[in-house]
Design goal:
The complex is a heterodimer of chains A (312) and B (385). Chain A has eleven helices and 14 strands. By secondary structure, chain A is α/β, with parallel strands linked by helices. In chain A, strands 6-7-8-3-9-10 form a six-stranded mixed sheet, with helices on both faces. Chain A has a four-stranded antiparallel sheet with strand order 2-1-4-5, with helices on one face. Chain A has a four-stranded antiparallel sheet with strand order 12-13-11-14. In chain A, β1 and β2 form a beta hairpin. Chain B has two domains: 229 residues, no CATH class; 122 residues, abc type-2 transporter like domain (abc type-2 transporter like fold), CATH 3.40.1710. Chain B has a five-stranded mixed sheet, sandwiched between helices. Classes of the chains: A alpha/beta (312), B alpha/beta (385). The interface between A and B is large, with 41 and 37 residues.
Chain lengths: 312, 385
C-alpha cells in the first residue's frame, strides 16, 4: 500500500466489501487498493473468498455491502462499463470447447464490438504461436495452451485491468513460466494485474501480495514487507533423518510449524528464545541447525495458522 | 497524472448479437445429434401421427337458420339437440350470416330448415334440411353427422298424428343433407398433419433453447459470457435467431411432406400462415429461453419442456377436438400458444382464411411472445449471484 500515493492512480479502490451465500459469510469487510501497472498476487487457502472477491471486482457478483471503484467506475452501478475495460480469466476454462481457437477469439472480438477484428485476432494468434492450429477445437488443447488461449481472449479488447483466477492451476512448470512471461510483458505495457494463486514461486513473481483468509485481508505488501510483518524466525535443520522429526518437533511449545523441505526441516515460530529451547534436545549429531531466512511459504503457513486461531 | 480515459460500452448492439448468433450457429452445426433431431423428428412424428385418433366430442356449437317458423321445424331442432351432439348457440337470420359463423369457426355446424318445410312434410314430399359441417377436424364432426342422418325417422313421430299419421311411417318425413365444408372427404390426416406442425415445432424448439442457457451454466462458459458487455436481450436475440431458421426449415419439411404424402389441401392464406409460423416459432423459442433461465441444470430444463409439452399435445385441439373438451380443459388450452397456432394453420391451409379472419389467434400468439420475452428478461441473471 506504500506505493499508492496519488489517488487517481488507483485502478482498484474498494472498501468494506461483504458477501454471503445463504448463511456463509464468504468475504468480510474487504478493502484493497491496487495501483496502476502493478502485478498483485492474491493469495489465500482454498475457500478463503478469492474467487468471490475477483467476481465482485468485475461485476459478476453484487456485494451485499461496501463501496468502491474499479477503473474509476462504481462496482455496483457501473458494472457494464467495468466489463468493457476489464479482462477476466476464470478459474475453470470457460471458452467454448466446441468452437475453434479462431472462432473463440472472433467471438470475443465481436462481443466487445472491437474494430479491426480480423487483424486483432490474427495478431493474437501470432503472439500465441497458434496460427497453424487456429482451426483446432479449443476443447482439444492441452491445459497449458488452454490457459494461454484464455489469456489471449481476456486481453483481446486491450483491458486496463486483468483479473486472473488461479490461471496456472494444473499447468506444467514450463507452460507456467511462459504464461508469467506474458503477464509481465502485458504489465510492462501498463496493464494492472490481480492474480490469485496457490504457488509460492508465482507469488514471488508479483510486485506485491495480498493475503486473504476466511474472507479477510490479513497481509498486504511486497514479499519482503510481508516477511518483515510476520516477525518469523526460522531454523533450518539438516542431517540424516531430520525430515522425519517434523511431527515430533511441531508439538513442542514455541514451535508454530515444522515442515520438511526436501532433506531439510524448517522449524519456525515468532519467539526466538522459545524456539531455541524447543530445539535444544535435538542439538546433537547427525543434526545441524542454523538460522535461515523464512520463506514466503513459512510466512503463509504462519498467517494461515493465525487466521484459524482468530476464527475459532 | 490523471487516469486514462476509459472506454464506455459501445452502442453497437448488433455486433454483440452477431457474436452470439454466429457462436450459437457454429455450435449447432458441430452438434450432430441436434442436426439429426432437426431432420428426423418432423419426419418421424409425421409418419407416426399421420393416422388419427378418433373421439366422440358432444355438444358441438351449431348455428341455425329457420325459414319456416312452425311446430315441425321446432321439433326438428329439438331432435338435433336431443342427440347430445349439437348445441344451438346462434340463430342466423340470413344465409350470409350462417356462412360467416361457420367460416370463422364460431360454430362447427350450420343447419338450414327451408321455408316450405311443413308444407312439404304434409304433402309427403320428403323435404331436405341442410347440415353444413366444418370438417377441418373430421374426427370431431363424424359422430355427430352419423347421429344427424339417423334422426329423421324418429324426430317428428310425436307431431305426425291423426291425419298426418301415415307421413310418420316409412319413408322418413324429411331428409338431412350433409355438406362437409373444407374437407369434404373427412380425411383425418388433413386435420392431424397441420396440427403436427404445431406439436413438432413446440417439441424441438422449446427444448433447443431451454438447454441453451443451462448448457452455458453447466459447462462454465456462462461466467465468461457474463463478464462480457453483452446485454440480456442481445444474448437472447443472438441465441434465438439461429433456431428461427431451424424452425422455418422444419416448417417447410412438414408442409412439403404433408402435400406429398398426405395430399393435404393448401387453400391459401399464406400471409396469415407465415405470420402465424413466425410468431409461434419466436414464442416457442422465447419460452424455452425462459425455462432455461429458471432451470439450474439441463435435466431440469428438459423436464420443464416436457411438462409444457403434454398439455400442448393433449389440450390444444391437436389430439382431441377442442370443442369436445370440458370447460376447464378448454380454459387451459386457451392459454397455450399451440391452440391458437393450430387455429391459424387449419384456418389458413384448409379454409384459405386470411388475416382478416384469423387475427384473434394471431394476436394471442403475439401477446404470448411479448409476455414470455418480458418474463425471460426479468429472470435472466446478469450476475452469478
Amino acid at each position: 500500500m506504500s506505493e499508492t500515493d496519488a489517488p487517481d492512480e488507483l485502478v482498484i479502490d474498494v472498501h468494506g466489501l461483504n458477501k454471503s451465500f445463504s448463511d456463509k459469510h464468504v468475504v468480510k469487510d474487504f478493502s484493497i487498493q491496487v495501483a496502476k501497472g502493478r502485478i498483485t498476487g492474491f493469495l489465500g487457502p482454498n475457500g478463503s473468498g478469492k474467487t468471490t472477491t475477483l467476481r465482485m471486482l468485475c461485476g459478476l457478483l453484487t456485494p451485499d455491502s461496501g463501496t468502491g471503484k474499479c477503473l474509476g467506475f462504481d462496482i455496483v452501478e457501473q458494472t457494464e462499463d467495468i466489463k468493457c475495460n476489464v479482462g477476466y480469466m476464470t478459474q475453470k476454462f470457460s471458452l467454448y470447447d466446441d468452437l475453434t481457437i479462431e472462432e473463440n477469439l472472433m467471438f470475443m472480438a465481436r462481443v466487445h464490438a472491437l474494430d479491426r477484428r480480423h487483424e486483432r485476432v490474427r495478431d493474437a494468434l501470432e503472439r500465441l504461436g497458434l496460427v497453424e492450429r487456429r482451426r483446432q477445437l479449443a476443447g482439444k488443447l492441452s491445459g497449458g495452451w488452454k490457459q494461454r488461449l484464455a489469456l489471449a481472449a481476456a486481453t483481446l479488447h486491450e483491458p486496463d485491468l486483468l483479473l486472473l483466477d488461479e490461471p496456472t492451476a494444473g499447468v506444467d512448470p514450463k507452460a507456467r513460466r511462459t504464461f508469467w512471461d506474458e503477464i509481465h510483458s502485458l504489465s510492462a505495457e501498463g496493464l494492472t494485474v490481480l492474480v490469485s494463486t496457490h504457488y509460492m514461486d508465482e507469488a514471488e513473481r508479483c510486485h506485491d501480495i495480498a493475503y486473504i483468509s476466511y474472507g479477510e485481508l490479513i497481509a498486504r505488501g511486497t514479499v519482503s514487507d510481508i516477511l518483515r510483518q510476520t516477525k518469523l524466525v526460522t531454523y533450518e535443520g539438516s542431517g540424516a533423518g531430520v525430515d522425519r522429526l517434523g511431527p515430533e518437533i511441531a508439538g513442542r511449545p514455541g514451535v508454530e510449524a515444522a515442515a520438511p523441505f526436501g532433506a531439510t526441516l524448517h522449524v519456525s515460530g515468532t519467539d526466538r528464545e522459545a524456539l531455541k529451547r524447543a530445539l535444544t534436545p535435538y542439538e546433537h549429531a547427525p543434526f545441524k541447525w542454523r538460522e535461515s531466512e523464512p520463506t514466503l511459504e513459512d510466512a503463509f503457513i504462519h498467517l494461515m495458522g493465525q487466521a484459524e486461531d482468530n476464527y475459532k | 497524472m490523471t487516469a486514462p480515459a476509459r472506454r464506455k460500452r459501445p452502442d453497437s448492439w448488433e455486433l454483440r448479437v452477431l457474436a452470439i448468433l454466429v457462436k450459437e450457429f457454429t455450435q449447432l452445426t458441430r452438434d450432430r445429434l441436434t442436426y439429426a433431431m432437426i431432420l428426423a423428428v418432423p419426419i418421424m412424428q409425421l409418419l407416426l401421427f399421420g393416422y388419427a385418433i378418433n373421439t366422440q366430442p358432444r355438444h358441438l356449437p351449431m348455428a341455425v337458420l329457420v325459414q319456416d317458423n312452425s311446430v315441425l321445424a321446432r321439433s326438428t331442432l329439438a331432435a338435433f339437440v336431443n342427440t347430445g351432439f349439437f348445441d344451438i348457440t346462434h340463430t342466423a337470420r340470413t344465409p350470409a350470416e350462417l356462412d360467416r359463423l361457420i367460416a370463422t369457426g364460431e360454430v362447427t355446424f350450420a343447419l338450414t330448415i327451408p321455408g316450405d318445410f311443413t308444407r312439404r312434410v304434409a304433402l309427403g314430399d320428403q323435404p331436405q334440411v341442410l347440415l353444413e359441417a366444418d370438417a377441418t377436424d373430421p374426427s370431431a364432426t363424424q359422430p355427430a353427422i352419423a347421429a344427424a342422418t339417423g334422426l329423421p325417422s324418429q324426430a317428428l313421430s310425436h307431431d305426425l298424428k291423426g291425419g298426418l299419421g301415415p307421413r310418420a311411417a316409412r319413408p322418413p318425413p324429411f331428409e338431412v343433407v350433409v355438406h362437409n365444408r373444407y374437407n369434404p372427404e373427412g380425411i383425418t390426416s388433413y386435420n392431424i398433419v397441420p396440427g403436427l406442425l404445431g406439436v413438432i415445432l413446440t417439441l424441438t424448439l422449446v427444448i433447443f433453447t431451454a438447454l441453451s442457457v443451462t448448457r452455458e451454466i453447466e459447462r462454465g462458459t456462462m461466467e465468461s459470457l457474463l463478464a462480457t458487455p453483452a446485454q440480456p436481450i442481445e444474448v437472447m436475440i443472438g441465441k434465438l435467431a439461429p433456431y428461427v431458421i431451424v424452425g422455418l426449415i422444419q416448417t417447410v419439411i412438414i408442409l412439403v411432406l404433408a402435400r406429398l404424402l398426405f395430399n393435404v389441401p393448401m387453400a391459401g392464406g399464406w400471409l396469415a400462415l407465415s405470420v402465424g409460423v413466425l410468431l409461434f416459432i419466436t414464442g416457442s423459442l422465447a419460452l424455452g429461453f425462459f425455462f432455461s433461465t429458471l432451470a439450474r441444470t439441463q435435466l431440469q430444463a428438459m423436464q420443464m419442456s416436457i411438462f409444457y409439452l403434454l398439455p400442448s399435445i393433449l389440450l390444444s385441439g391437436f389430439m382431441f377436438p377442442f370443442r369436445g373438451m370440458p370447460q376447464w380443459a378448454q380454459a387451459i388450452g386457451t392459454m397455450i400458444p399451440v391452440t391458437h397456432f393450430l387455429r391459424v394453420v387449419r384456418g389458413a391451409l384448409l379454409k384459405g382464411e386470411g388475416i382478416g379472419v384469423l387475427w384473434p389467434s394471431l394476436t394471442a400468439l403475439g401477446v404470448f411472445v411479448c409476455v414470455v420475452t418480458a418474463l425471460a428478461m426479468l429472470r435472466y441473471r446478469r450476475t452469478l449471484d
